[in-house]
Design goal:
Layout: H1 2-21, E1 22-31, E2 42-45, E3 51-53, E4 59-65, E5 70-74, E6 81-84, E7 93-95, E8 105-108, E9 111-114, E10 122-126, E11 149-152, E12 163-166, E13 179-182, E14 185-186, E15 215-221, H2 224-227, E16 238-243, E17 249-264, H3 273-286, H4 301-305, E18 309-321, E19 325-337, E20 344-357, E21 362-376, H5 387-393, H6 416-422, E22 424-443, E23 446-465, E24 474-497, E25 500-523, E26 538-562, E27 566-577, E28 586-597, E29 611-625, E30 637-643, E31 646-651, E32 662-675, E33 679-691, E34 694-698, E35 707-711, E36 714-730, E37 734-751, E38 763-767, E39 770-773, E40 780-783, E41 785-789, E42 796-799, E43 805-806, E44 815-819, E45 824-834, E46 837-847, E47 850-853, H7 856-859, E48 905-907, E49 910-921, H8 924-930, E50 935-949, E51 971-972, E52 979-989
Parallel strand pairs: 1-7, 13-16, 47-51
Antiparallel strand pairs: 1-4, 2-3, 2-5, 5-6, 8-9, 10-15, 11-12, 13-14, 15-16, 17-18, 17-52, 18-19, 19-20, 20-21, 21-22, 22-23, 23-24, 24-25, 25-26, 26-27, 27-28, 28-29, 29-32, 30-31, 32-33, 33-36, 34-35, 36-37, 37-45, 38-39, 39-40, 40-44, 41-42, 42-43, 45-46, 46-49, 47-48, 49-50, 50-52
Length: 990
Amino acid sequence: MKKLLQSLFVLLFIAFSAIAQDRTITGTVTSQDDKLPIPGVSVRVKGVQSGTVTDSNGKYSLSVPSGSNTLEYSFIGYTTKSVVISNTTTINVALTTDAKTLTDVVVVGYGQQSKALTTQSTTTVNSSSFKNMPIQTPQQALQGQAAGVNMVNSSGVLGAEAQITVRGGSSIGAGGRPLYVIDGVPLNSSGGDYSQAQGGSSSLNPLLNISANDIESMTVLKDASAVAIYGSRGSNGVILITTKKGASGKTRITAEYQNGFSSPTATEEMMNADQFRKFRTDYLRANNGTIPTYPSASYDWIDAVVRTGKLNNANLSAAGGDERTQFYIGGSYSDESSYTLGNQLQRLSGRLNLTHKLSDKINFGLNYNLSRVDMDRIGSENNTYAPLTAAYLQLPYITPYGPDGQFQNTGFVANVVAIAATGINKNYSDRSTGNAFAELKIIDGLKLKTDWGIDNYGIDEKYRELDLLTPGGYAYRSNYTDRKWVTSNTLNYNKTFGKHTVGGLLGYSFETSTLTQIFVEGSGFASDDLPNVGSASTPITASENIYDWALESQFARLNYDFDKKYLLEGSFRRDGSSRFGPNKKYGNFYAVSAGWLISNEKFFNKDNKYVQSLKLTTSYGTAGNDNIGYYQSVGTFASGANYLGAAGLTPDVVPNPNLSWEETAQLDIGVSARLFNAIDLQVNYYNKNTTALLVNVPFPYTTGFASSSQNVGELRNRGFEFSVNSDNIKGRDFTWRTSFNIAFNKNKVLSLPKNLDEDGRDFLQGSPVQRAITGYSKNSFYLIRYNGINPQTGNAEWLKKDGTPTTTPTAADRVIAGKGDPDFQGGITNTFTYKNFDLTAFFNFTYGNDVYLDGLTFTDNFGTGSYNKSVKLLDYWTQPGQNAFAPALNSPTRTTYSQASTAQLRDGSYLRLKNLTFGYNLPKEFLQRTKIFSSVRLYFLAQNIWTIKNKEFRGDPEISANGASNLVVGQSFFALPQAKSYTFGVNIGL
């Protein structure tokens, strides 16, 4: 009996001990805003590893060890809350929304900084700004969203590169693109290196393989203090792309599907067959010409090549993890057919982002993306193999089919209907980008990080033309690969000592890339059924070029703030590049900046109704541009020459051991403020001077060389930026928020290599109608001024250089008639919510730029009968006093009427409703009952549906067909207009 009592006593002791050591806490976590449960909230015991997450109803149950007295509740988008454990076993918690989750820090080069304490000038575009939008490439998300960033779609061709500048174009002869950095990996983004024979006049978009659905934010680095840390590649601005990451808590699954259709925003109205026959007959009769017998057939070529474009997008992602491991995995598929015959794009991409905390001192992670793009390409817009170009110019009585009902050869203006139906015009690209990193916490505040990244890009293009179009048939195949790897190692220190906070960065990086270009072409095929170029009986070209480059860098940054009031920052970078001459291999770049957070001063009353926050910043520093291609400093020879029947080499590049970087020095002064507890204001003034411009300096022909790359010239961009974010109305059921930005920029060429024009000014020609001129914009249009049709004589008139009218202008009468860059540009977004409904309207605008429509020299050409003509020529002069569009049919100016002049130059200013989105979120109460869905949003999106433009503009004003070109901006030769599209979508969260 005694032993039995002892055993019971021991069991009771153990049971009571267990109760004393562990107890179970249960409860529900809800949102403070709508009182609804929050699934996936991380609930953990402070100081130990144990934890759990809330279920679909926001409920949790957690065993708490003895001695633990605090629970922590955390969930992305909400403020972390700590609750002291009392004697109760039930703890219900309401979490408040953390409005600063995405805005209290900003991404900067090689790290992050407090938004309130940074002295750098940056603009961040978060994924919420382009959520649910069918974006083809990431650059589109920046249009009108970031002050100082001017983004113009080059054309409506799928896959074409956009023209994008940050605070004005800072180069003339070197690359003008910003540097793109994804999760710390600088991308190979020189679109010109990837351009092939097809597509638009611009280069292939270098970010085509990057899915916007995987992007969390894009941060544009603008001033010297922000870009100097990227040294020799920062002068055109830097765009940091941060992809989505996982978070501790319940795994969140998101699925999205979009379906839409599109049409062109504008097309030119051309003559039909009857109109053309009558016009040509009247024209020839008026000039005593022989009138031929025209075919009686009729065909609408524009209707044949313009169709209804279609869009199908599907995205699926999952994000989650625990306290030690977080992950994001996403996949997307896009299938888009343009409104233009023969142009289609399919993209499949997948991303995995993973971080793991090995211990309290060691973290490591992986970011990896793999994608494939399959495109049906079309001919460049500036030739007659492009569908819409050919449709405009093809004679309307010519049909794609012969008398036998089969496709026929239509001559110089190609039978683009036959090309689309029978030819092969494919472009395949594969890209893998990513990095693996490890981070070691050495001591408190000091971390060592090592990072290894890759960017492997492969492009394969296949083209085949049948015997119908080219006797014997023609084919080519090109294959480009660009293999890059980069490593960076950094020490990062951050420590607060009382009122003093010190931050430091010290780093070393090395990167190298090898570009291989292979091209083969041939003609003469035994059968149209042989699709491969290897079947050609007559080889035309077989070439292989291999280029490589390397960049070695050391960099440092030091930050200091005193009492969260007085801010200082300095950065330095030394780059060594293989692109430059042995005497100028290394370059040094620096920046200094300072800030004063006035609102943290004791004399500042933050409780006033007018100004709650006020900060002044200023910075000055330098950055460079090394994007000049390959081996421009080395005296190279070109192979493939024939010397008396033997293989030979020819001198190709003039050696220049002193070839060096362009350098841009920039001053920035900024003011940021919070006003009326509702308005966030940012104002910046900048002055950018680029010296030692990398340009091709012409040589006398007697030297045997056309030109060589040299550092000559100076360019300036100066302007103001304004950004305003306003909470206009914040009610319980209704909210209204406005985001507005506008940027003014004035570009001026200060000096150029000696090359005088008629007025004694140095210039560099970008195109026959556009040039950089000392004292003016680098994109100045240089044209004869068109004066209109003289209502008394019926003759077209132009202006001489002195302004007097003439019917016989010469090249000497050309003047600076306009410019391709705008005076200002920006965007405005208004977002309204009412209960579960939301409406967003985004407008973008540009003002003060001109666009030269080169295609009008063909559509408005009186003198030739080889091409169709615009219906506007039907309005020709017939009697005195008439205000006509075109001269009299027998006017002596009829053959010169379409010559290059301001008759083709149009005011490119416009205001466009870029995106209009209407959405509905299913009620959370309903979704809670399903126990499956956490969110469901249905939405409708319309793009490019309304535009205000100059009434004389013919076509779409949002055009710059040469893409990222520095010297040719705002020109078009039948460039495809932007698509007007309508999209329906659903977004589901699980």
